[in-house]
């Protein structure tokens, strides 16, 4: 199932946020969206998730306009992990993760299949031990994992994550990225906004670089994520290299 956006125009309070942008995403791959603060990354994700309706252009799933789908169907197909999520409800972790099944569950509540999907998502995000804890009493990083588990529990065809590494320690950053990659390799689509360029270089199959509401570069990571493009997108000089063990390194060295 292919997800695409075509000639998308988004204006908020009189400001043009996305300027007739187009692109597409491939299932089975991790696409990372890059760009400076305010470039339009979260705005693009909200359009792709159907949470914002653009003034012009369209988002389509296999050529079908997203807005022709009802909310429940869209919820089953597209799952969004929003930026800076906060948990304010005084409920336990397994209840929060169970909310991810809402687009699937029938009028009689959760089925066995729903409970199994919740359990799988909690194991995948290292949250199983937290199942009975009150979510609002967890650390920021633990809450981030719980909210990722909620999205995974919904088993969406497209998983959209806005800065999922924020407040995660390095080990859990790797866990989350590996989990997203595994999810993509199982045939689903994964779109992630990242600020860590080295992590992006390691995990992206494809990259879309936004600058001031325009697509600056898009395509396979090796082509779209060059030092030149990164420098232009972020206004900093970037050095790209390889670690002693062969992993890519992308290091901002100074402001341009
Ligand atoms: N509801 C809104 N009303 C007016 N302007 C908005 C609104 N939401 C976002 N913007 C503006 O749109 C622009 C793009 O915001 P967006 O959150 O998409 O950027 P971003 O690339 O995700 O940035 P960041 O890296 O800081 O999260 C910003 O200039 C922001 O101030």
Question: Could you explain how this protein is built, in words?
Answer:
The chain has 256 residues and is α/β, with parallel strands linked by helices. The protein has one domain (3-255): P-loop containing nucleotide triphosphate hydrolases (Rossmann fold, 3-Layer(aba) Sandwich), CATH 3.40.50. The chain is built from nine helices and twelve strands. It has helices spanning 41-48, 71-77, 93-98, 112-124, 140-153, 170-185, 197-203, 221-224, 227-234, and strands at 3-12, 15-25, 30-34, 56-61, 64-65, 78-81, 158-162, 189-193, 206-211, 214-220, 236-242, 248-255. The chain has a six-stranded mixed sheet, with helices on both faces. It has a four-stranded antiparallel sheet with strand order 2-1-4-5, with helices on one face. Strands 11-12 form a two-stranded antiparallel ribbon. Strand 4 and strand 5 form a beta hairpin. The longest helix has 16 residues, at 170-185. It is globular and about 55 Å long. The mean pLDDT is 94. The site of adenosine-5'-triphosphate (ATP) has 13 residues, from strand 2 and helix 1. It comes from Parasphingorhabdus marina DSM 22363. This is Iron complex transport system ATP-binding protein. Pfam families: ABC_tran.
């Amino acid at each position: 199932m292919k997800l695409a956006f075509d000639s998308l125009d988004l204006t908020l309070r009189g400001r043009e946020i996305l300027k007739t942008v187009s692109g597409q995403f491939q299932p089975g791959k991790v696409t990372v969206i890059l760009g400076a603060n305010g470039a339009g990354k979260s705005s693009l994700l909200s359009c792709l998730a159907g949470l914002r309706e653009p003034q012009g252009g369209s988002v389509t799933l296999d050529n079908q306009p997203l807005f022709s789908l009802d909310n429940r169907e869209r919820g089953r197909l597209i799952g969004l992990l929003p930026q800076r999520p906060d948990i304010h409800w005084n409920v336990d972790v397994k209840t929060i993760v169970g909310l991810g099944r809402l687009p699937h569950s029938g009028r009689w509540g959760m089925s066995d299949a729903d409970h199994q999907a919740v359990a799988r998502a909690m194991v995948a995000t290292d949250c199983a031990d937290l199942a009975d804890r009150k979510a609002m009493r967890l650390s920021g990083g633990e809450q981030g994992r719980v909210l990722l588990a909620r999205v995974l529990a919904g088993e969406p065809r497209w998983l959209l994550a806005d800065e999922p590494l924020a407040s995660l320690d390095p080990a859990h950053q790797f866990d989350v990225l590996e989990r997203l990659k595994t999810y993509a390799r199982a045939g689903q689509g994964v779109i992630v906004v990242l600020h860590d360029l080295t992590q992006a270089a390691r995990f992206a199959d494809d990259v879309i670089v936004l600058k001031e509401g325009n697509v600056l570069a898009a395509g396979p990571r090796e082509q779209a994520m060059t030092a030149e493009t990164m420098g232009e997108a972020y206004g900093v000089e970037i050095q790209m290299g390889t670690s002693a063990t062969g992993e890519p390194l992308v290091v901002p060295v100074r402001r341009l």
